[in-house]
């Protein structure tokens, strides 16, 4: 185990979060990350270098409390960073979102031993150590749809033995800590999180992530074969149905805002590509840029209207931090669907150049479509909202 770092040894390497210097830093990082985005999309390599760059400026520990060396960032501050990173390279931003969400809630979780949660936080500050929750399984699918995990934690003499597998383990090549959702072999079983270090024997990659978009997230299947976990690392373990590892309303609001911001930022990068292309493209039979045509002006206006709506909604949701569960779902639904529509408009107007792999727009289109796969999916959001809407009019 690495020795803990004393609070007095922590030095901040970035300017204050709300300052012109910090905004300039983020703008520079956006440009740097954008320069390598096509490479990571083409190769599906995990963006280790991008994450190391973020660690140089303490951005991987942004939501770690200040008392443990982090920045103790608010949701608006985290949103600002996610927007900047996602506009450059969205796969890096998605890994960052998972880091922010976990550390935002970690220190307030009484079911974790204090020493363990502080160790995870301090390693994020010192080493840039990443953590994520691993919940989806091949047979179960997304746990948001119900059911118990097939991953089993069996009692051993001095801890637990974990067997099972998890799909879509975002960031897996770079994670230090794996928060594995499993059930015990007890009768009745308990369900919750067993914290596994990535270097533990028996942890291996199964099928590799090979998707249409967000290709550099490293969301591989992770297989756990006779993996030992100490007794102290069984955290957030409860009987089914009792409060535990699930998100509370505030945590769900953070997730909806930050996840949505990734795809809104993809749409903004697509918008910029389209605007520049139309301003520079001058067909010989026109003798003027496409941007001079009313149809192209209207298309860009429609795109900007959608993105304006997204910005207002995200900013409002981030600053209130008191969004209900139903409203948080609607934030995600509205922002991501408007982001997809914005990119589709740019693709439709640009024609073949927009779908050419020589241009960035087709990459942005593939990336923004991945917004649909995140929990909660559109059908669940709309059904839940409709059920709540009817509740006031339906007699018991």
Topology, element by element:
Layout: H1 20-43, H2 48-56, H3 75-88, H4 90-106, H5 114-127, E1 130-134, E2 152-156, E3 159-169, E4 175-184, E5 191-197, E6 203-205, E7 220-230, E8 234-238, H6 249-280, H7 294-320, H8 325-350, H9 352-355, H10 360-369, H11 378-391
Parallel strand pairs: 1-4, 2-4
Antiparallel strand pairs: 2-3, 3-7, 4-5, 5-8, 6-7
Provide a quick synopsis of the model.
The chain has about 400 residues and is α+β, with helices and mostly antiparallel strands.
Task: Please describe what this structure looks like.
48% of the residues lie in helices and 14% in strands. With 396 residues, the protein is of the alpha+beta class. It folds into 3 domains: 7-128, Acyl-CoA dehydrogenase/oxidase, N-terminal domain (Butyryl-Coa Dehydrogenase, subunit A, domain 1), CATH 1.10.540; 134-238, Butyryl-CoA Dehydrogenase, subunit A, domain 2 (Beta Barrel); 249-390, Butyryl-CoA Dehydrogenase, subunit A, domain 3 (Up-down Bundle). Strands 1, 2, 3, 4, 5, 6, 7 and 8 form an 8-stranded mixed sheet that branches. α6 runs parallel beside α8 and α8 packs antiparallel against α10. The longest helix has 32 residues, at 249-280. It starts with 19 loop residues before the first helix and ends in a 5-residue tail after the last helix.
């Amino acid at each position: 185990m690495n020795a803990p770092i004393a609070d007095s040894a922590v030095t901040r390497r970035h300017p204050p979060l709300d300052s012109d210097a910090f905004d300039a830093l983020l703008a520079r990082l956006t440009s740097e990350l954008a320069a390598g985005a096509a490479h990571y999309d083409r190769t599906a390599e995990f963006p280790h270098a991008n994450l190391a760059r973020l660690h140089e400026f303490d951005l991987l520990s942004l939501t770690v409390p200040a008392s443990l060396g982090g920045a103790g960032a608010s949701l608006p501050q985290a949103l600002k960073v996610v927007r900047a990173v996602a506009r450059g390279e969205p796969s890096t931003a998605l890994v960052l979102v998972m880091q922010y969400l976990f550390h935002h809630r970690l220190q307030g979780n009484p079911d974790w031993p204090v020493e363990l949660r502080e160790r995870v936080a301090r390693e994020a500050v010192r080493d840039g150590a990443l953590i994520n929750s691993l919940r989806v399984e091949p047979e179960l699918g997304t746990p948001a749809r119900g059911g118990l995990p097939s991953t089993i934690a069996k009692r051993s003499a001095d801890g637990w033995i974990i067997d099972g597998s998890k799909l879509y383990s975002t960031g897996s090549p770079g994670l230090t800590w794996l928060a594995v959702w499993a059930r015990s072999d007890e009768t009745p079983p308990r369900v919750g999180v067993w914290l596994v270090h990535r270097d533990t024997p028996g942890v291996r990659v199964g099928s590799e992530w090979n998707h249409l978009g967000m290709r550099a997230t490293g969301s591989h299947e992770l297989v756990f074969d006779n993996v030992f976990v100490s007794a102290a690392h069984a955290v957030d373990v409860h009987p089914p149905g009792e409060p535990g590892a699930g998100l509370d309303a505030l945590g769900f609001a953070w997730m909806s805002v930050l996840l949505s911001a990734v795809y809104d930022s993809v749409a903004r990068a697509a918008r910029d590509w389209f605007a520049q292309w139309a301003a520079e493209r001058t067909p010989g039979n026109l003798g003027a840029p496409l941007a001079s045509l009313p149809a192209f002006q209207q298309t860009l206006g429609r795109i900007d209207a959608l993105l304006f709506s997204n910005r207002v909604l995200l900013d409002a949701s981030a600053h209130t931090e008191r969004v209900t569960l139903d409203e948080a779902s609607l934030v995600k639904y509205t922002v991501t669907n408007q982001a997809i529509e914005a990119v589709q408009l740019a693709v439709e107007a640009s024609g073949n150049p927009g779908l050419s792999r020589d241009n960035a727009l087709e990459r942005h289109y593939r990336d923004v479509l991945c917004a649909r796969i995140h929990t909660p999916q559109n059908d669940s959001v709309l059904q839940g909202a409709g059920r709540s809407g009817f509740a006031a009019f339906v007699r018991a």
